[in-house]
Amino acid sequence: MLSLQPAFASEPSIATAAASTATTPTWSGCYLGANAGYGRAEADATDTPYREGPYAGMGVFWNDGFYDRISTDDGGLAGGVEAGCDRQFDLGGTALVLGGVLDFSLMNLGATGNSAISSNTRATFDMDWAASARLRAGVAASDVLFYVTGGYALANVDVRAFSTPTPPTSGEMDVSGGGTEGGWVAGGGVEWRFQPNWSVGLEYLHYDFGTLTATGAATFPPDAFPRFENDVTFDTVRIGLKWRM
Q1: For 37-66, how does the pLDDT look when each residue is reduced to its tens digit (9 = 90+)?
Q2: Regarding beta strands 174-195 and 144-163, do their DSSP bridges make them parallel or antiparallel, or are they unpaired?
Q3: Which of 3, 92, 218, 226 could be joined to 62 by an S-S link, Cβ 3.0–4.6 Å?
Q4: Under 8 Å CB-to-CB from 222, ≥6 apart: which residues?
Q5: What's the pTM value of the predicted model, to 2 decimals?
């Protein structure tokens, strides 16, 4: 009977170890989620030389050949949905998490700015949605994940430049550009897995859509082809809730 006691005494420690292993969290799997937060878009419209018409290549600008930059920005609520998958790896005792995510967000951002050189020249932008396909890479500490992310971005961005003549000004123009535009996105965040199938996170993303051109023929003079190049960016901070399968 005495010889059975050591074996019997060791059974609880084996069971405890097994239970501990079974409850160790893992970030491997796919998820669906929703997010909401604050976003701010900026557009810097620069008056550049004509590339069409009789003055193309001659360094002629809309506003009398002077460098003109019109900056506009707007902020507001942004929210959307996302879906992705993660895979956790053990790297020398460190939990490395790699994955990919697709997301789509709605917003209603737009603003109008005035030229500092000519008060009747204005530039506007409008953005109503943005989407991305991104990779994620991070390090997990049990139920908390810290990560960086980046990839390809799409957005619907419209840009416009126009003039509102005031006597004796005779020049008039109304040119536009943009549409569905591509760019890049990068950022990072932290995520907390508060239940086996649920996590909540805080994320920051910066989008850059490069240069969007608003150009075309002026109403008057007819040989003028104003060209405004717009550098458009978008930043967002958001909270997301994910259901992990």
Answers
A1: 999 999 999 999 999 999 899 988 998 756
A2: antiparallel
A3: 226
A4: none
A5: 0.87
